[in-house]
Structures are given as structure tokens and as C-alpha cells.
């Protein structure tokens, strides 16, 4: 009689910490009919995930996560599990390292195939040989054979000998009906402001008339971190809350115009195209750029210009200033708040709502942890998006309950609308030089501009694309562009004679190796070199070329640099004021 074979020795127990724990995922449809979920880990995201999901505080371990070399020293293996409602299906997991020279093609890919049944698979780093170009941990990709699969993923890093991991912390149950939660939401109301225009929209909706809510901003408004992005984002949830509360006939319409990684500098240029497209006349416009405007060359002039541009529309829409927050408790509301103060606008601060309670302990006032609010260091998860929508709805409820005219509102007999109009036609608090800005591209012409395209004869179709409104369909940004494709180096560059006060160039950023730099000259004087690899990802980049007080003729010339003559460069368009 033969006994059973002896089992293998159990694997040595290793300390570990999570970087993703029950993270919602959604397989976005690809051209080939498959689905993919990207989770970016570059630019400090991996470190932040270790901090807020893994509770890691050890500075040495966090520093090691900055590079592939350090990652290999710290991490012994990676535990991965994927769970969907189709456990028999297989998913492909890829942890991609970015290359130093070739961003997307030069680094190592750590991969495994696994069933979508929640069972953990291990990737052992000793099975891989690093490349010479390996630079930083880049992104996680989860690939499905079919699109639009929803599920959850968990990823934990098992550590090499000599390193320790902190104990796990269990997340609290979030009671969204509790008094504490409601108090947190109420803290978001930075200022009720003049509620007249919002109240007018609410009354219009209650009467059964068509009302349109529009949301413009960066990646948070686009829906980053929401799974799925089109129905779980704060904008769509806010629209639904407004409709359910104030509409009797489904007469509320929805416009979403968020573009990832872009500031109000670009928002003011694309507002007419992305929000007012096809004759749209929004009644309420939510503006969300408080975590996108750090790089704004004008330090708030673009933001105030956009606000005034919207407020001055002939049908007089309401404007709400929404201040999102990063996981490091940062936003720009102190820079941007004076704009809301001057025009007495409603302002909602997510920082004010959630940040104070993050530092509290369980049982001492904490309602939720950062891990429960954030998808990554820049974006909220589904719960975070829900909280943002609840904060906006709290504002709308307060406006609905407001008296027709608040005590002290009237000044020398003027109504609330007259007071706002007087402010709009008075001096700006930061600046409003760009409130009458226009987009110039192949479709949107300007009689004061004479263009000679030179070698920029192609049209780029590999563009930053976003989900607009309530759709999952990807809409390309700036499709009417001018592209130099690298095939005509002997031809002259792009030249334009334009009469204007100020001019912004919009060009395409990219991490691809076949994209090059271009030199920009204004009136035959070198102005700047536009480098798509500075940001190094597919992205619309607006830069200010000149800013003057009087409109006059300028000559602009854009030529691909000598060393990049065989590479591509795309002018997406221009923004100009006259």
C-alpha cells in the first residue's frame, strides 16, 4: 500500500504590504474588441499607494520604490488577484517598468495570466532579467478578452529579507446617512454666495422646463478613478442627484467636459467647443481646476478669465467653483478663492470636507480613510466621487432653501443680478485679460490670421481622447490640427501672421520615441522650444507665447529642431485674444 506523496515545504512567510486592495477595475473597450484597465504608478503614485493603502512609513522603503533598481532590492515577489462575476475567464496582469530612453518599450514587463476568481498568483522577480533601459515603475495593466468587464484587483508586494512591513489596518464602514457624514459634507460649503442664478435654474427645473448642467475641469471631472468612468464620476452622480431632487419630467440634461492633466489655461480655450458645442446653453456650470492650475503661467488670470467668460454669457448661467483635493491634502483654493469672493459665487471645497478627519483615529471622529477616498494620489475612487457629488448637492439644497433675497444683499436698490453684473464689468481681482479668447485651428478660422502650413501638412489622429457627457465613447481632443510627419524636412516650417493681443500655442505631448521637439519664434525672435517629452504622455499642452495690452500684428514661426527632423510634431491649435 502506497501512502500519499509528501507535500512541498511551505513557502517562507514574508512581510508584505498592499499597493492595491479590492480596487475597482473596468475593462475599457479597445479597437480590437478587448478590454483594458490602466493603473498608473509613476510620478509618485506607487509611493503614495504604499503610504495610504499599505500604511508604509519607512523612508528607506518608500525611497526604494522610486526606481526599478530600488524596487528590485525591496520586492521579492508580487501577489496579484483579480475577481469578476465571470470567474472562469482569464485576465492578463502586467506591471510595466518605464524605460529611461524608450518610455513604453524599454522597460521590463512583469506578467502573469490568472483566473478572475479572486485566487492570488505570485510573480517572482528572480524569474526576470532587468533591461539596461529600466528606469521607474510605470503602470499596471489588466487585460480582458472582452470589454467592459467590472471587478476588483488586489496587489501586494512581498519583501526581501531584511525589510519589514507595517501591520494591516482594516477600513471603517462608511455610514453615509450618519450625522457625522452629513457634518463632513456640510463643511464643504466654503461659501453659499449669491444663490440667485442657481435658484433660478432649480425653479426652472421644478416647472418642467429643460435645464442643463455642465461640468468642466481636469481628469477628476473626466472621471478618473471612477469605475466605470461614465456613470460613477462625481459629475454624472451630481447630475443624477439634481435631477432626482428637482425634476419631475426628466428634463435635466448633462454636459461633461473634463480633460485629464489640463488646466484652466486650456479650459478657457476649449470651453466654447467642448461645453457650448452645437448651441448648448447650460444653466449651471461647475468649474473644477483647483488641482490642475499649479503650472499656470498667469497664476490665476486664466482661471478668472474663464469664470467671467461663463458668467457673461447672454443667458446668464450660474457658476459653481469646485475645489478638489490631492492625497497630500493640497489644492489651490487659497489662490483661486478671491475670484469666488469678488463675484460672490458659490464655492465647494472637498479639501475642507474630508481632510480634517483623515488625521483622526478610528472612534475619535474619522469617517473614512484616505485609502477609502482616493483611487490614487491624484484622483478619488467611487466613494470619493460620491462624496464630491454629495457636496455639490448640499450646495444646491442650500440654494433651494435660500430666501429670494438675503438680508444685506441689496445695495442702493440693486437686485442680486444687478450686483453681479456690476462686479463683472468692474476690475478683476487677479486678471481677466483672456475672457474673450478664441480657438484657432483648421476648422475654426480667424480673418486676422494668415497661415502657411509649410511642412505641417498632415493631420494627427493619435490624440488625447476623453469620455464626454454620459458616454464611454472616446472623443479626440483638437482633431483639426497641423502635424509635421517627418517626411518633408526640406520644406519650410509652419508660419502664421496674426493680429492679436495674446497668443497661446497648444501642442501634443507624447511619450513615444518618434516624436520630436520644435522651436517657436515670434517676430523672428526665439521664444521657446516645445518639447513633447517634458510631460512624456499623450496630452494637450497649452503654453503662452505672448501677452500684450494692445492688438497688433505678430509673425509666428514653428520649426522642428535640427536633430528631430525625422520625427513628428503636432500643433493642436492656438488660443488668441483681440
Explain how this protein is built.
By secondary structure, the chain is an alpha+beta fold. The chain has three domains: 144 residues, Jelly Rolls; 246 residues, SGNH hydrolase (Rossmann fold), CATH 3.40.50.1110; 141 residues, Galactose-binding domain-like (Jelly Rolls), CATH 2.60.120. It is built from 14 helices and 25 strands. Strands 16, 17, 20, 21, 22, 23, 24 and 25 form an eight-stranded antiparallel β-sheet that branches. Strands 10-15-14-13-11-12 form a six-stranded mixed β-sheet, sandwiched between helices. A five-stranded antiparallel β-sheet has the order 2-3-8-5-6. The N terminus is likely disordered.
- Mind describing the biggest β-sheet? 8 strands, antiparallel
Derived from helix and strand composition plus strand pairing, the structural class reads: alpha+beta
Unreliable stretches:
1-9, 406-410
Count helical runs: 14
The total count of strands amounts to 25
Distance between the termini: 96 Å
Name of the CATH architecture of the largest domain: 3-Layer(aba) Sandwich
Annotated CATH topology of the largest domain: Rossmann fold
Amino acid at each position: 500500500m502506497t501512502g500519499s506523496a509528501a507535500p512541498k515545504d511551505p513557502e517562507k512567510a514574508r512581510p508584505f504590504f498592499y499597493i492595491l486592495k479590492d480596487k475597482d477595475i473596468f475593462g475599457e473597450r479597445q479597437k480590437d474588441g478587448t478590454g483594458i484597465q490602466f493603473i498608473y504608478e509613476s510620478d509618485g503614485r506607487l509611493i503614495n499607494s504604499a503610504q495610504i493603502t499599505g500604511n508604509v512609513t519607512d523612508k528607506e522603503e518608500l525611497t526604494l520604490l522610486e526606481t526599478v533598481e530600488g524596487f528590485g532590492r525591496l520586492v521579492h515577489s508580487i501577489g496579484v488577484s483579480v475577481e469578476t462575476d465571470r470567474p472562469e475567464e482569464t485576465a492578463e496582469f502586467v506591471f510595466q517598468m518605464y524605460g529611461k530612453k524608450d518610455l513604453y518599450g524599454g522597460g521590463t514587463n512583469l506578467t502573469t495570466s490568472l483566473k478572475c476568481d479572486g485566487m492570488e498568483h505570485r510573480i517572482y522577480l528572480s524569474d526576470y532579467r532587468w533591461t539596461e533601459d529600466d528606469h521607474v515603475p510605470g503602470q499596471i495593466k489588466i487585460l480582458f478578452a472582452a470589454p467592459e468587464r467590472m471587478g476588483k484587483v488586489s496587489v501586494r508586494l512581498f519583501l526581501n529579507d531584511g525589510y519589514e512591513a507595517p501591520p494591516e489596518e482594516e477600513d471603517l464602514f462608511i455610514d453615509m446617512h450618519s450625522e457625522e457624514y452629513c457634518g463632513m459634507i456640510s463643511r464643504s460649503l466654503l461659501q453659499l454666495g449669491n444663490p440667485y442664478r442657481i435658484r433660478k435654474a432649480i425653479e426652472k427645473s421644478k416647472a418642467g422646463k429643460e435645464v442643463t448642467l455642465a461640468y468642466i475641469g481636469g481628469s477628476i471631472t473626466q472621471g478618473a478613478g471612477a469605475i466605470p468612468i461614465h456613470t460613477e464620476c462625481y459629475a454624472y452622480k451630481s447630475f443624477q442627484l439634481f435631477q432626482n431632487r428637482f425634476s419631475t419630467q426628466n428634463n435635466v440634461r448633462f454636459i461633461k467636459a473634463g480633460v485629464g492633466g489640463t488646466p484652466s489655461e486650456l479650459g478657457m480655450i476649449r470651453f466654447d467647443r467642448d461645453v457650448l458645442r452645437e448651441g448648448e446653453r447650460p444653466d449651471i456650470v461647475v468649474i473644477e481646476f483647483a488641482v490642475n492650475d499649479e503650472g499656470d503661467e498667469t497664476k490665476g488670470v486664466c482661471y478668472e478669465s474663464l469664470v467671467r467668460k461663463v458668467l457673461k454669457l447672454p443667458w446668464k448661467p450660474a457658476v459653481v467653483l469646485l475645489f478638489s483635493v490631492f492625497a497630500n491634502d493640497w489644492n489651490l483654493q487659497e489662490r483661486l478663492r478671491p475670484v469666488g469672493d469678488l463675484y460672490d459665487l458659490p464655492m465647494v471645497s472637498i479639501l475642507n470636507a474630508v481632510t480634517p478627519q483623515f488625521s483622526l483615529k478610528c472612534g475619535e471622529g474619522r469617517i473614512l480613510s484616505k485609502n477609502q477616498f482616493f483611487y490614487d494620489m491624484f484622483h478619488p475612487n467611487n466613494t470619493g466621487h460620491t462624496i464630491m457629488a454629495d457636496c455639490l448637492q448640499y450646495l444646491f439644497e442650500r440654494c433651494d432653501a435660500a430666501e429670494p433675497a438675503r438680508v444685506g444683499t441689496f445695495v442702493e436698490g440693486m437686485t442680486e443680478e444687478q450686483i453681479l453684473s456690476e462686479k463683472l464689468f468692474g476690475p478683476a481681482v487677479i486678471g481677466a485679460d483672456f475672457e474673450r479668447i478664441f480657438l484657432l485651428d483648421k476648422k475654426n478660422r480667424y480673418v486676422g490670421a494668415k497661415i502657411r502650413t509649410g511642412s505641417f501638412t498632415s493631420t494627427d489622429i493619435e490624440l488625447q481622447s476623453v469620455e464626454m457627457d454620459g458616454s464611454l465613447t472616446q472623443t479626440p481632443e483638437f482633431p483639426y490640427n497641423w502635424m509635421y510627419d517627418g517626411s518633408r524636412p526640406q520644406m519650410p516650417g509652419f508660419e502664421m501672421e496674426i493680429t492679436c493681443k495674446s497668443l497661446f500655442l497648444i501642442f501634443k505631448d507624447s511619450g513615444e520615441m518618434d516624436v520630436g521637439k520644435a522651436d517657436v519664434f515670434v517676430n523672428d525672435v526665439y521664444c521657446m522650444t516645445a518639447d513633447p517629452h517634458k510631460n512624456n504622455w499623450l496630452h494637450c499642452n497649452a503654453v503662452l507665447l505672448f501677452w500684450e495690452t494692445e492688438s497688433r500684428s505678430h509673425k509666428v514661426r514653428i520649426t522642428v529642431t535640427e536633430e528631430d527632423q525625422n520625427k513628428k510634431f503636432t500643433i493642436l491649435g492656438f488660443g488668441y485674444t483681440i
